[in-house]
Design goal:
The complex is a heterodimer of chains A (317) and B (292). Chain A is an all-alpha fold. Chain A is built from 14 helices and two strands. Helix content of chain A is 78%, strand content 1%. In chain A, strands 1-2 form a two-stranded antiparallel ribbon. In chain A, a hairpin with a 4-residue loop joins strand 1 and strand 2. The longest helix of chain A is centred in the N-terminal third of the chain and has 35 residues. Chain B has 292 residues and is mainly α. Chain B is 74% helix and 0% strand. Chain B has twelve helices and no strands. Classes of the chains: A mainly alpha (317), B mainly alpha (292). The interface between A and B is large, with 53 and 51 residues.
């Protein structure tokens, strides 16, 4: 098992390196001349050259990449061009806000998705299954801002029961903060429900068709006991992996929800960095999301190994 | 698990005495498929003939009739510039369908080629390709597309190519696993023994056998492409104004939602929702038929 975890860790490091190259390429190479982008068309060439030199973008690409990556390893994520200040405090504050919103969505959607998937599997092929499957799939592919707008119109404007903005303001009580987060959480819940329900359904169907489930039924166990003791325990393993991979989405896919509800999270930070061409901030934000995702999948893999004796006792290839 | 789904079809087959029904006949028996196709066709017609169907010019601004609520004259009301929302929703089907379709085609063609190569050749190509897929998957799709569109500047060809390239590794992964299954088959061993070239085996022998997987992947990705295109437009990095576009129209008007002007955003939003749901109904039906 230790070998497996080490191997998994090694692969994660390679992925992280590729990710850093990808983000560097998108944020430093593709935009062309950052000095010109920041100063605009009217700036003199001398001013642009001076700013390029100050930003360090007139050096060879490999040198720039090396400086950026070594800086990251020392905890220096660069200087934001829009705030003229180090990036880290902004990322940290935004990440905490995003985690609050993500946590709320997560606490609601995980039980909901698992129950939905298991119910669908137990009614395989019947109308209940078709409704849960198709509704889940549709909820997953309807963009967050579409469902977000519908909930804003229904609950925020027509019924006037919940606040439309996600920010409760500084010094607001926990209850008020929670109230402001309910509407933004709904689009996230809708998106995640489909993924989790789908996986729970597939896992349960597989377990229902297994030899051990047949044996348990044939030896006379009650259906409820078979489901609880033999099926659920096995069916939920792959679901854990999916739930963890979706944390990455939750933290990253917040761009749209946070923009729609004007919530100061990491998604909104990335969006504002993009609109003001603040590439150091954009790169740091996107990379942060990538790292959060990879840590989450790593934890999921390790958790799956710990929970599944077949993987724990070798054969984890 | 497949028996449950296959059973009704088998009974029908016996009743007609026509032997095995072709997959497309099974599809036409599914109400979900019919509903999905009808909605999809409706939007395709709007995309092609939108300017003829729309009651008014989607670009014409009536500055004396701005922010008008839905009425007989303007079914979906007017926006902040006094443009007819109904006409903009009809004509707006064009940009999103064109961009999503071509992006998915690029992703499917490139992804299938990459998947065939990774799956059939294996070894270092496969390992490196696999890591690249992981790296792209480490970020939400919309963020990767967003990152590159921001860096390159928004334009229709850029959006098509960026979304296509983002899809490539995802489709490659699916095709790769389908190829791995095919690699165990006897016909490939005999093809190799006959001394056929690797490229020939990959694209002439293996490809036709993984096409059902590619078809399902195409329809699934089309749904995600619409999601991605609409999201980019909503963030202001998609189709640029004044071209009628559902996402861009929502972006332009969601700021006045709290003031009670709900119709400018709700109708484009419902249009997006109906389109993605239609594609999902079609996708789900195809998957069900192919797996039964």
């Amino acid at each position: 098992m230790a070998v497996y975890i080490l191997k998994r860790l090694g692969l994660a490091l390679i992925t992280l390196w590729l990710l850093s190259v990808l983000v560097f390429f998108a944020c430093q190479v593709l935009p062309g001349d950052p000095g010109r982008a920041i100063l605009g068309h009217l700036a003199s060439p001398a001013a642009v050259a001076a700013l390029d030199h100050k930003l360090g973008v007139d050096r060879p690409l490999l040198v720039q990449y090396w400086t950026w990556v070594t800086g990251l390893l020392h905890g220096n994520m660069g200087t934001s061009t829009q705030f003229q200040a180090p990036v880290e405090p902004y990322i940290k504050a935004a990440l905490i806000n995003s985690l609050k919103l993500a946590a709320l969505a997560f606490v609601i959607v995980v039980p909901l998705g698992v129950v939905g998937g298991v119910v669908a599997a137990l009614n395989y092929g019947r109308p209940a299954d078709r409704i849960i499957s198709v509704a889940g799939l549709s909820a997953t592919t309807v963009p967050e801002f579409v469902s977000g707008i519908v909930v804003i119109i229904v609950f925020g404007i027509t019924l006037k029961v919940l606040p439309v903005s996600a920010s409760a303001g500084t010094g607001a009580s926990a209850a008020s903060q929670f109230q402001h987060l309910i509407l933004p959480a709904i689009p996230l819940i809708l998106i995640l429900f489909g993924y989790i329900a789908r996986m729970a359904r597939a896992g349960t169907i597989e377990a229902l068709n297994s030899d051990y489930a047949r044996t348990a039924t044939l030896k006379g166990l009650k259906r409820s006991v078979v489901i609880r003791r033999h099926i659920l325990r096995n069916s939920l393993l792959p679901t854990i992996t999916v739930i963890a991979t979706q944390t990455g989405y939750l933290i990253g896919g917040l761009v749209i929800v946070e923009t729609l509800f004007n919530y100061q999270g990491i998604g909104n930070l990335i969006y504002k960095a993009a609109t003001s061409k603040d590439f150091p901030m954009l790169a740091a934000g996107v990379l942060t999301i990538g790292v959060v995702y990879m840590v989450a999948t790593l934890i999921a893999d390790i958790l799956a190994t710990v929970l599944n004796p077949r993987l724990r006792l070798g054969g984890a290839e | 698990m497949t028996d449950v789904v296959a059973a009704p079809a088998a009974q029908v087959t016996v009743a007609h005495g026509t032997g095995e029904l072709p997959p497309w006949r099974l599809l036409l028996r599914r109400p979900t498929f019919i509903v999905g196709v009808v909605i999809l066709l409706f939007w395709v017609v709007c995309a092609v003939f939108g300017h003829l169907i729309a009651p008014q010019d989607p670009l014409a601004q009536q500055l004396l009739a701005t922010n008008k609520a839905p009425s007989g004259a303007h079914w979906f009301g007017t926006d902040q510039l006094g443009r007819d929302v109904f006409s903009r929703v009809i004509v707006g089907a064009r940009s999103i369908l064109i961009i999503s379709f071509f992006a998915t085609v690029i992703g499917t063609v490139a992804g299938t080629a990459l998947g065939l190569i990774m799956g059939y050749l294996g070894g270092l190509v496969d390992i490196f390709g696999g890591r690249l897929v992981e790296a792209v998957l480490a970020l939400p799709l919309v963020i990767v597309a967003f990152l590159f569109v921001v860096a390159l500047g928004p334009s229709t060809p850029t959006i098509i190519v960026v979304i296509g390239l983002v899809f490539t590794p995802l489709i490659a992964r699916t095709v790769r696993s389908a190829v791995l299954v095919e690699r165990q088959q006897d016909y490939l061993a005999s093809a190799r023994l006959l001394g056929e070239k690797r490229a020939y085996i990959m694209f002439v022998e293996v490809l036709p056998n993984v096409l059902p997987a590619v078809l399902v992947e195409f329809t699934v990705r089309l749904g995600y492409a619409i999601f991605a295109v609409a999201s980019l437009s909503f963030l202001g990095f998609g189709v640029q104004p004044p071209t009628p576009d559902w996402g861009a129209d929502i972006y332009a008007n969601y700021g006045v939602l709290p003031a009670g002007y709900w119709w400018m955003t709700l109708f484009p939003a419902l249009a997006i929702a109906s389109l993605v749901i239609a594609i999902n109904l079609v996708t789900d039906s195809i998957e069900q038929v192919l797996s039964s």
